[in-house]
Amino acid sequence: MLKNKRGGFSLIEVMVALVILVIGLIGIFNLHIVAKRSSFESFQQTQAAYLANDMLNRMKSNRTELANYAGTYGALAAGETVPTSCDQSGANCNSSNMRVWDLYQWRWTFSGGAEVDNGKNVGGLDTTTACIVVNDRNVNIVIAWRGIREMAGKVSSSSNCGSALNNRRRLFELASVIERN
């Protein structure tokens, strides 16, 4: 007599396959989250590089005020007024007024003023602090901001710029030499 064999999967085989599939999907989901975080951190680093280079170029255009750019700067405070000593194009400004205007515009980009959605600033870096050190012709610009997650180690830098951000602090440093006129 021939035995009647049935083809197919048992319930245990289906359950094992589902467990393996779920574990794989969780891994892919976590990889996606890590990739999005890394992409955002990279975007922030690029934005900080842009901000530092922007100020360096502004300083090169206004070399007579070079030493007066030195200082520590944060984003604009709510209700802070626009400097009225220059018009919006920067025309009709002396070098001192131009420095004030440059720093105002730079701080405005920290607060996300260049990107607005429904009347709310959405650009900029989180809790931005910028430090400019001028030593004769040597210029060091440091941008510090708060990253989206804590770092395992310490940020190594000779700068204390933004040190209140603790282990979520991210830094971008730009050192350059600006020749005098």
TrEMBL record:
Transmembrane segments: 12-35
Keyword Lyase in annotation: no
Residue stretches making up the Type IV pilin Tt1218-like domain: 35-103
Coiled coil start-end: none
Alphabetical list of InterPro entries matching this protein: N_methyl_site, Pilus_4_PilV, Tt1218-like_dom
Pfam family name, one: Tt1218-like
Keyword check for Transmembrane helix: yes
Domain of life: Bacteria
Stated name of the protein: Type IV pilus modification protein PilV
Organism listed in the record: Shewanella electrica
Gene: pilV
